[in-house]
Amino acid sequence: MKTKFSSINLMQELQHKEYEQLCEDFTEKKYQKGRLIYAPGHDDDLVFIMKQGRIRIYLAMEDKEFSLTILGPGDIYATHTRAHVAAIDDVTLLAMPTMRFHRYMVDHPALSRTIISILGELLKQSFSIIDNLVFKDISGRLADFFCHEAEYDGRQTEEGILLSLDMTMEQLAAIIGSSRQTVSTIINGMQRAGVICKVGRGVYRIPNLDLLKNFPSL
Amino acid sequence: MKTKFSSINLMQELQHKEYEQLCEDFTEKKYQKGRLIYAPGHDDDLVFIMKQGRIRIYLAMEDKEFSLTILGPGDIYATHTRAHVAAIDDVTLLAMPTMRFHRYMVDHPALSRTIISILGELLKQSFSIIDNLVFKDISGRLADFFCHEAEYDGRQTEEGILLSLDMTMEQLAAIIGSSRQTVSTIINGMQRAGVICKVGRGVYRIPNLDLLKNFPSL
DNA sequence: AGTACGCTGTCAGCCATCTGACAATTCTTT
DNA sequence: AAAGAATTGTCAGATGGCTGACAGCGTACT
After folding, report:
1. Using one digit for the tens of pLDDT, what is the confidence trace for B40-68?
2. Residues of B in contact with A2 (CB under 8 A)
3. Is the pTM of this model over 0.85?
4. CA B175, CA B180: separation in Å to the nearest integer?
5. Nearest residue on chain A to B112, judged by CA atoms?
6. What φ, ψ does residue A121 adopt, rounded to 5°?
7. A45 in Cβ contact with A77 (< 8 Å)
8. How far apart are CA B44 and CA A108, in angstroms?
9. Which of A2, A24, B116, B208 pairs with A200 at a CA distance of 20 to 30 A?
10. For the residues of B74-86, what is the DSSP string, one character each?
C-alpha cells in the first residue's frame, strides 16, 4: 500500500528538446483545496502532470470513499476508469486532452515506453492494494502504510524517522479502507506499544521501523 | 470483478506478417492440470499467450489464496509482480523471455500500442476488483461475478442464461475473497430466492439477470 | 477571549463473516 | 460395485470491525 503511483518522472522525459512541442500543448490549471477535479462520467478526459500540491485518486460509493493513492509534484495521471480525483491542497497541474496525447504518442515511440513503465508501476501498486485488502487486517494495513510512507517520505533523525503525514484520521481510514474510529484506536494502541509516537497533528515519529513492521508483535 | 484480464486479442495482432519473426521466437510449453507455472521469485520472466486450457493468476499468503483472474485461450500475460500462476486444466502456451519481447517492442512501435491497451485494461480490472473488495459484501460480489460471467460466457436459452463455470465452491471463494462455506450458503440462498438455479456441478441457469444484479433484493 | 467547528478518543451494541466440525452427497478409480 | 477421494451443506461459536453517540481538545475566526 504505497502512496506514489509512479516513481518514473515524466517531467524528465519531457525536458528533452524533441518534446518541446508537446510541452507547449499542456495547459496550466489550478484547483482550490478540496475541489473535485474529475468524477467518472465527465467526458473531458485529461492527461496531466502535477506541478504543485497534492491530489487524491479515490473510488466512491454512496457515502464511503477509498483512496487509491495520493499524488504530488512530478506525478502523472490520466483520468480514466471509475476513479474520482480531488484536490487535497491548492493544486496546480499541466493538463492535455487524452486524445491529443495519444496522437502525439504515435509519432514518438520513446514516449510509449515511458507510458508502459508507468502503467506497469500502477498495476504493481494495484496488486499491492489488493494484497493488503485481502490478506491483512486493519492493524497490518496501517503498519504497512506507515512503513511505506516512512521509507518514502520520512526524515531520519537521531530519535528515529520523522513523518509528516499531514492527514486526519479520517483520510487515513479512507486509504487503508477502514473507519475513523478504528484507526484512531489502533494508532493509540501503537503509541502505547511504543512503535509510533505522535508528535503533532499528522506528524509522527517512528523509533524503530522493524518494530512497526510486525505490529502487533504479540 | 470480471474474469478476463484482456479482451484485446494479441493473437490477431501477431498474425500480421511483420510479426512473423516474433512468432517464431515463441516456444510452446505444456503444463499439467494443477501445476504451478510461476511463483514470485522465479527469475525466468516470461511473456506468454494462452493456447489451450485455463490458468489462474492469484495472490497467496500462507494458506489463503485470492484469484485475480482466470485466463483462457487467446489471453496474454506477463509474469511480473507478486502474483502466482497455476494451471487449472492441462495447458498449452506460447512463451518468450520478457527481455526479448522488450527488445522486439523497441523496433515495433505498433506493438507498444497494443501493450498499452492491454495494460490499461488490466488496470481497469484491478480497480474493479478493489471496488468490489472495499464496497461490496460477499453476496454482492458473488452476484456481480455471476453477472459478468453470464454476460461474457453464458449461452442464451429459452429458460434464461446457461453458465458453465466449471469451478468448485472453493475456487469461487478464492475469486471473490471469501470462504468455501459462506459461498455455499449464499448460493443456496440465491437458489431459494429463485435468482439462480443449479443445473449440475459448476453449471448454473440464470432466469433473469436483472434479478441477480440486485440480489439480495430485500 | 469567546464561540464555533472540525478533529480525536472511547465505549457499547451489533452484525457479517470466518473457523472448525461433521454428515451427506457426488465423482473417480479399480 | 465398492472403496476412496473430493465436494458440498449446515450449524454453532468466536471475532474483527462497523456504527452511533458523546465528551474532550485544538484551531481558527472575528
Report:
1. 988 778 888 888 899 999 999 988 999 99
2. none
3. yes
4. 11
5. A112
6. -60, -45
7. no
8. 30
9. A2
10. T-EEE--TT-EEE
